[in-house]
UniProtKB/TrEMBL annotation:
It comes from Pedobacter alpinus. The chain crosses the membrane at residues 30-51. This is M23 family metallopeptidase. Its EC number is 3.4.24.-. Residues 199-294 form the M23ase beta-sheet core domain.
Length: 322
């Protein structure tokens, strides 16, 4: 209840009630309402500035989740790009050399997207830069895959016309993947297990139990089957077309010099002879007398995912077994 106010009337010498006119009452009411509105506006402004509504909190969570997904996608795109670049390298330096086809020029493989701004619709957003970069990478990868697909179409025609060559070129692993034990030591400079120095390792080491079959990786003729210093019991196969393969540290042979073999024939068995620190098959591929990375020649018996795994394992900078 509002308090009653009095004032002292000096004329009547009495205390009398204060009576407000209608205009003053209206002004006071308006003043109260105005003050309340100002305070309400200030409180709401502060709340919207420093406090999030439930809807805003939900939207921010969604934005953070999308940002994280974009970053994960960026990482995966980088991984895909590494694999595609390796496919391009193999295409230009292995497959096209084999089939006497000209490499695809880099300016064709890496050509940009000219013309109008393709990404204008993605501009003026909070995360425009992230969205545009991701979309650009997708476009580049899509174009690389398209060019690579066309290249493989061209090579497929060459394969059909050179079936004898394809049967001769090394194209499988010398050891069944299911028989492998432990890691694979790859091609390149590796720590030597005996001398403890970094030394060029000109092949791949496939660790497997003694007695595991070793297969010829392509059609050819046995040009050596005997003991070689460091390699122990080793076999060499001439495949023609400039290709030779070597299989070392065998326990015993199943073929002899001068014998013809087909891809997939058993030529011997895994052993631990020569300068070897454990049972394995040391496998080398030579093109025109020069050692090349054998991992580029496993295109007949590995799926794309298995090849990616093999590539990752073989590229580790570990210690060789011989």
């Amino acid at each position: 209840m509002a308090k009653t106010k009095y004032y002292f009337n000096s004329q009547t010498l009495k205390y009398e009630k204060v009576k407000l006119s209608l205009g003053i009452k209206v002004l006071k009411g308006l003043g109260f309402i105005s003050t309340a509105l100002v305070f309400s506006f200030v409180i709401i402004a502060l709340a919207y500035t420093f406090l999030d509504s439930p809807k805003e909190k939900q939207l921010k969570r969604e934005i953070n989740t999308l940002s994280l997904q974009y970053e994960i996608l960026q990482t995966r795109l980088k991984q895909f790009d590494v694999v595609i670049n390796d496919l391009q390298q193999r295409d230009d330096n292995i497959y096209r050399v084999i089939f006497e086809a000209e490499p695809i020029p880099l300016e064709v493989r890496n050509a940009g997207f000219g013309g109008i701004n393709r990404y204008k619709s993605l501009e003026n957003y909070d995360y425009s830069k992230l969205m545009i970069e991701t979309t650009k990478k997708l476009d580049v990868i899509s174009k690389k895959l398209y060019i690579q697909s066309k290249s493989y179409d061209e090579l497929t025609k060459a394969v059909n016309s050179k079936s004898k060559m394809m049967a001769s070129i090394p194209a499988i692993q010398p050891i069944d993947s299911r028989k492998l034990r432990g890691s694979i030591s790859g091609f390149g400079y590796r720590m030597h297990p005996i001398y403890k120095i970094r030394k060029m390792h000109e092949g791949l080491d496939f660790a497997a139990p003694i007695g595991t079959p070793i297969y010829a990786t392509g059609d050819g003729r046995i040009i050596a089957a005997g003991v070689e210093r460091g390699y122990g019991n080793r076999i060499m196969i001439s495949h023609g077309y400039g290709y030779t393969t070597k299989y070392a540290h065998m326990s015993k042979f199943k073929v002899k010099k001068g014998q013809s073999v087909k891809r997939g024939d058993v030529i011997g068995f895994v052993g631990n002879t020569g300068a070897s620190t454990g049972p394995h098959c040391h496998y080398e591929v030579y093109k025109s007398g020069k050692p090349v990375n054998p991992i580029n020649f496993f295109f007949n018996d590995l799926t794309p995912s298995e090849y990616v795994t093999m590539l990752e394992v073989a590229s580790r900078d570990n210690q060789s077994l011989d």
